Amino acid sequence: MILLTGATGFIGGHVLKALSEKNLQIRCLSRKSINSGNPNISYVTGDVLDYESLVKATKGVDTVYYFIHMMGKQKEQEKFEVLDRIAITNMVRACKANSVKRIIHLTGMSNPQEKLSHHLASRKEVEEIIRNSGINYTIFRASVILGKGGAAFETLDTAVRKLPVIPVFNWQKTKVQPIYIGDVIRYLAECLDKSETINRSFDIGCSEILTYRELMQQYAKELGLKRVFIQIPGSWHRVSAYMLGRLAPVNPDVIYWLIESLRNTMVCEPNDLKRIFGFEPVSFKESIRKISEQVSE
């Protein structure tokens, strides 16, 4: 039995679909009762901030997919960091109480030589709690995930499509290694059967390393859009979040924390994922082509 958290979210929804195709028994954690209509998919009512509900949810479970991350209001970073800590601590305790064998987790990349944003620092803490829990784990770290419905991609898409003149701030030269959503889900779903991934953490990304400015420029080029980029000193987090929040289908507070994280480098450390999984993530250009095909269907 698999317990899937965040099943109605961007990552969780894709993972649910991938796992359901494997004919596995999947239990989804939800705040309200849902009837899936699929005999292999059930829903259990619970909340990661309620320990007792997690004990109930993890009963009879072998593997937990943990895709929970809090993102509060712009002036409440301490609050969501505390909630993140409580949530994962509750889950780890519940997993131990029911002898869950493994936790699979997706988080953000981080550079140990940099001071992390509030968003990435909280994600790093969650990762460390899982790694030090004594429970087997597999952890994947990504930077920009390219796919419709993802907050980072929707913000990028909105900026490039709707702003003929795009301001770039002090994060323009930060380097990242984006990855297509399909490849992320493939790693998450296939690692279930890969014993080589147990008790290991992996950075995942395509082969290209781009600055955020190059990311936007190449995306505009793939869309056939001519855009002018203007450099402006400073970070302008709040102004950017407010402006993009009015244009993008993303909560302005989420955009704020994502923009704050733009200062942090997200480049993959070498790993042996190709040997283990037998594939490499598609290129940035191919990612955009795939997304465009999905939108036109």
Automatic annotation (TrEMBL):
One of its GO terms (molecular function) is protein-containing complex binding. Residues 6-146 form the NAD(P)-binding domain. Pfam families: NAD_binding_10 (PF13460). InterPro entries: ComplexI_NDUFA9_subunit (IPR051207), NAD(P)-bd_dom (IPR016040), NAD(P)-bd_dom_sf (IPR036291). This is Putative NAD-dependent epimerase/dehydratase. It comes from Candidatus Methanoperedens nitratireducens.
